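User: Electron transfer flavoprotein small subunit. Structure?
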Amino acid sequence: MKVLVCYKWVLDEADIFVNEQDLSLNFDKAKGKINEYDRNAIELGASLKETVGCELYAATVGKGVKASVNDVLSRGPEKVFYMDSPGLDSLDSSVTARLLAAMIKKIGGIDLVICGEGSSDFYSRQVGPRIAALLGYASLSYAVDVQVNGSEIIVTRKLDDGTEVVKVSSPAVISVLPEINKPRIPSLKQILAAKKKPSTSLALEEIGLTEADLATSLTFGDVAAAIMERKRIRIDEGCQDISEAVAKLIKQLRADRVLN
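Assistant: Predicted structure:
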């Protein structure tokens, strides 16, 4: 079985700062990292590689994604396919899925595609199902457990009111929830070995697409930090002792309907 994991290279939110004057976000010092949700997808792929002996690949598209290759390879995949171009910045879910689906067709023979639940920047949760629709694969989301038996894939899905176990035959696209596993931290040996693993850069024409296929009807507007309104009530003002302050606090919490 050939398994491919799709992942996104996102900006580290810990490096994003808020400009106090207009609450706009400053990305100047933000470095890239593997999307947290996709780390669970990569870990699932690595686990399947260990348990059923599948071939494991990874694929990504976007601006600056070449920097992600060694990190991803250290986590289990045997090879990474990527498209890196300044013109692939801020892709929406539709275009991202279109590019990844074309890459999967180009690679050929992929039996199982694994995606994370969403991305930490836009969190649309659409890429996995869109890839499945474009490829004509079965689509399963909200997966918390995946078992492979030959060409049969058994998926446990987490629903609002319980769980559901579904059996499908490959090929399929599965989107996994974070609770499916705990991603391992690559060892020094794995990090060094990743530098010897292959990676392939693909261009639009190599996957049968043109610049027109990057067109989208979605336009991204400004992004600003949320404003947290605080009442700034001083409970201890005018209180003679702690018991009076506590009584005043309880009264205020009841007025705000925090307490009954």
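The domain at 2-214 is CATH 3.40.50.620 (Rossmann fold). The chain has a mean pLDDT of 89.
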